[in-house]
């Protein structure tokens, strides 16, 4: 079963974020608090959205996503920040069901893109390619965080 996350799911989502970060060898980078995530997902104008995969009343996985906008297409899209299925639930169709729900939202709302990033060593690449996803290898992804971001914010001519 796939359902929208509720405020009661926040501790479980935080737990899965930590599990995913550990899997991606980046647990030291997780800083999100329950209060931050609750505000992000459940304020009047949410900055992001989450869906939960359940099996027999147990949380099996989640996806967290937000809206993007394409200047070329002139419509919104979805950027999937995280998709995670707990190891004991993998192979049960939860990942496909979560992805299908995001695709359904795109179709219902007229969004024309569903995008995400995946580490180059992650075996999930095969899963995504089986769904028909195409690697955008002609694009490089960049990020500013921490000190470089602060430095740029204070840069003056």
TrEMBL record:
One GO MF term attached to the UniProt entry: N-acetyltransferase activity
Pfam families: Acetyltransf_1
Organism: Nonomuraea fuscirosea
Entry similarity comment: Belongs to the acetyltransferase family.
UniProt keyword annotation of Transferase present: yes
Top-level taxonomy: Bacteria, Bacillati, Actinomycetota, Actinomycetes, Streptosporangiales
Keywords: Acyltransferase, Transferase
Protein name: L-amino acid N-acyltransferase YncA
Gene3D superfamilies: 3.40.630.30
Location of the N-acetyltransferase domain: 1-154
PROSITE patterns xrefs: GNAT (PS51186)
Protein's UniProt keywords contain Transferase: yes
Record InterPro entries: Acyl_CoA_acyltransferase, Diverse_Substrate_AcTransf, GNAT_dom
